[in-house]
Please model this.
Amino acid sequence: MAIATRGTSSNYLQRAPSPSGLAEVLDVILDKGLVIDAYVRVSVIGIEVLTIDARIVIASVDTYLRFAEAVNRLDLAQTETAGIEELRDGGKSAKRKSEGALEGAKEKIPGMSSDKDKERSR
Amino acid sequence: MAASATMTGVYVYGVVRADELPAVSADGVGDSAVELLERDGLAAIVSRLPGEFRVKRRDLNRHLQVLEEAFGETTVVPCAFGTVLASDADVETALLSERRPELESALSRLDGMVQLNVRAAYDQEALLHELVAGNTDVARLRDESIRLGDAGYHQRLRLGELVAGLLDGRRAEDAERIISAVSRLSEDVAVDDPGEYDALKASFLVKRKQLDRFDERLEKVARELQPVLRFEVIGPLPPTAFAGTAAAP
Model:
């Protein structure tokens, strides 16, 4: 049941009447709802749940190194946040989020991330 | 990609007032039909599952679509995905009959309500730019770790720890700001674990007639927090995050 015009989506606020993509659907229906002592509970095993794992924030050495790499990759010569343009093209944000987490976790050759290295992996 | 869960039984999507939902036409999980089991004015929306039932991705969508169809007609108390009872009799007695007071109370509480899922996500680069610009330790550690390259492991670790802490603080501030901005226009909020670069991931329970004002207010705070934060709003949704029968805090 859609709401009559609530304003158009802008680049800072997107609206959708329904979830799209696995992560968003799971957000709505997984472990949300009336709890019944059910005969058997179907568990969502085997369906890719990478995007659920990406939600879990664990403070750890890996996390810190990921943040450091992200900061080191910044091109501080940019005065505009041109990064927004790149990110907007990326599509669903849930996927983007897990991509971001994965990118940081990828093996990086130490010393390669520098101002001289203008290559963008996105 | 399919899980195997062998079972036979009655899959329950949710509960409605019997006289307000004559039928559901959407396809159910496991390609089953969707039916209604009634007892004393309440009805459970169900599908009978075949003996061999393997959960598929599309079953997740089916579950939601059934809820959405019911929600389009009447108030629904949703069940979590994957709730299966042994038999019709169990549904009618153990659920509808024995838990009738709770169900009536939940229906009442959810009358006229919708759920909005709100996610405020940071533009990773824009946020990190702000954190670097706003903090001399971050800027210094960044320079050192870049200069030291391979040898700068400890600097990178310290840098990352510092950034993680700043991000936590920023996230808490922004989440608080967003929730306070809209709290007077919503009846309840259920906060989920945010992603690493999220400020907030939450479900709001909103009176249908307040929806436009809630949206306006949310848009206003989104405009204030851009471009570092971007918002996604999904809904109106059936109130899956608010189906519990405990009283709202």
